[in-house]
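Long-time lurker. I teach an intro course on protein structure, and each term I like to show students one example going from raw sequence to a predicted 3D structure in token notation. This year I'd like something fresh instead of my usual example. Would anyone be willing to generate the tokens for the chain below so I can use it in lecture? Attribution to the forum is fine with me.
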Amino acid sequence: PQSDLLGLIQVMIVVFGDEPPVFSRPTISASYPPYQATGPPNSPSRDGTISEDTIRASLISAVSDKLRWRMKEEMDRAQAELNALKRTEEDLKKGHQKLEEMVTRLDQEVAEVNKNIELLKKKDEELSSALEKMENQSENNDIDEVIIPTAPLYKQILNLYAEENAIEDTIFYLGEALRRGVIDLDVFLKHVRLLSRKQFQLRALMQKARKTAGLSDLY
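-- Reply from a regular --
Happy to contribute to a lecture. Here you go:
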């Protein structure tokens, strides 16, 4: 009916006003019209106008193309959103895994710290007990007896070290005496040569003794 066709045309004008369908008149050959075996009902009328069936078919085709285009557009948008959601989900999973690893590592570090604290407490108790014993023993001990090594080799090293430092102090005071004019240069040089030779011998003996005792080099 003509009323339905006019209604369809009005709807198409509103919906597809931004992309209206374009039609062109079919070229009518005056001498050799196209052969139509089935005689379709939507052929142009004799006066050259387009029939309602042709317009209807064209509008339906335009609507189908528009719907397919909009459907493809919506599907592409939905697929893009889905891909973004998948990437977000993967990022969240990775972040969750990293967070679990950090928590596990933190628990291990806390356990290690607690273990070290207990160990330090134990060592502190042992040290306090040892200091208390030393304080009790020092009241009755002579200071010289405390610092004298019991092994002969360590006693020798201590004596050599003390003698070498005494020579170092003597050379220093000779220099002060020379500076103040108490002794002259010849006396200073004579004594410094003797003391330096003695100091060299002491250092050599001390190095040998330290090496025998398994100690590091002092010079």
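Some talking points for your students: Residues 148-213 form one domain. Confidence is low (pLDDT under 50) at residues 22-46.
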